[in-house]
Design goal:
Layout: H1 2-26, H2 29-51, H3 61-84, H4 87-94, H5 99-107, H6 114-130, H7 142-165, H8 169-196, H9 212-235, H10 238-245, H11 248-260, H12 266-284
Helix pairs in contact: 1-2, 1-3, 1-9, 1-10, 1-11, 2-8, 2-9, 3-4, 3-7, 3-8, 4-7, 4-11, 4-12, 5-7, 6-12, 8-9, 9-10, 10-12
Length: about 280
């Protein structure tokens, strides 16, 4: 059951990343974030009411608020990276977000396993190679790599903060609701400011109603992935759940290859693979 749920998490996160990246190529990234997260807020609000999650409210929710402040920046940077560069490179690099919880553990006195040290070295090497240090052909833009790494830092920070925001499953739903609600407030404010400055926030034809199913899928897939991962981690070894759930970039890369026909240069594919391998070593350690 743990393995099945963790693999379902990878599938959901991978497809959500792929869908978000495609939408960010057609519409402003901030619009994609606000609309998809607004849908997630509605669903999580219903889950919190149904499970009685409000009883878990307490000072720990400030961690969820903090995660909500960081989240929009991370998602926006990630979608911008997906819109600018090959998904097969961007998505695996984002898994380096695991560096943040590892650093938190070190600060709290934990000592990394030798396997984790190897994972750090492998992942950093992958980050360098994914930039395309090759004499022939165009490399991935440095700005794309920067957006990806900022997004990874933000995602890792959110994971660490949410871990501190709850201790039960119902508390997790409430924490995720508060996080997403903060995301929408911050993202909506930024969208309003952007609109007041004359920046386009919608296509010329108005709100893209035809894209609403895709936006809904992105928002709900992300919420569902959080749910399946939480259940997987509670019903089995956390290490197994973390390793299998961290395979989501493979889903994104395969979707990009199958639907978009993306072709990666050898050094980029090797770098993306090393980044993913390093993350798996960190999780397994």
């Amino acid at each position: 059951m743990t393995a099945l749920l963790a693999l379902a998490t990878s599938l959901l996160w991978g497809l959500a990343d792929f869908g978000g990246g495609l939408l960010a190529r057609r519409f402003p990234s901030l619009t994609v974030v606000v609309v998809s997260q607004s849908i997630a807020v509605g669903v999580l609000g219903a889950v919190v009411v149904a499970t009685g999650g409000w009883s878990e409210a307490g000072p720990r929710l400030w961690f969820a608020v903090a995660a909500g402040l960081v989240g929009p920046v991370a998602i926006l940077c990630f979608y911008e990276a997906l819109a600018r560069g090959p998904m097969g490179v961007v998505s695996p690099l984002t898994t380096t977000s695991v560096f943040v919880p590892v650093s938190v553990g070190l600060a709290l006195g934990e000592r990394p396993h030798p396997l984790q040290i190897a994972g750090i070295a492998v992942a950093v090497t992958g980050v360098v190679l994914a930039g395309g240090p090759q004499l022939r052909g165009a490399s991935v833009e440095r700005r794309t790599i920067l957006f990806t790494l900022v997004g990874a830092l933000g995602f890792g920070t959110c994971v660490a903060l949410i871990a501190e925001a709850s201790t039960t499953l119902t508390g997790l739903f409430l924490a995720l609701f508060v996080q997403r609600l903060t995301n929408v407030v911050i993202g909506g404010t930024a969208l309003h400011v952007s609109m007041r400055r004359g920046a386009p926030v919608l296509p010329r034809g108005g709100f893209p109603w035809r894209a609403l199913p895709a936006l809904t899928f992105v928002g709900l897939a992300d919420v569902a992935a959080n749910g399946t991962y939480s259940v997987a981690a509670q019903h089995g070894p956390v290490t197994v759940a973390a390793v299998l759930a961290s395979l989501y970039p493979v889903v994104t890369a395969l979707a990009a290859h199958g639907f978009l026909g993306e072709r990666l240069r050898g050094v980029q594919a090797a770098g993306a693979g090393l980044a993913l391998m390093g993350t798996l070593l960190l999780a397994a350690g």
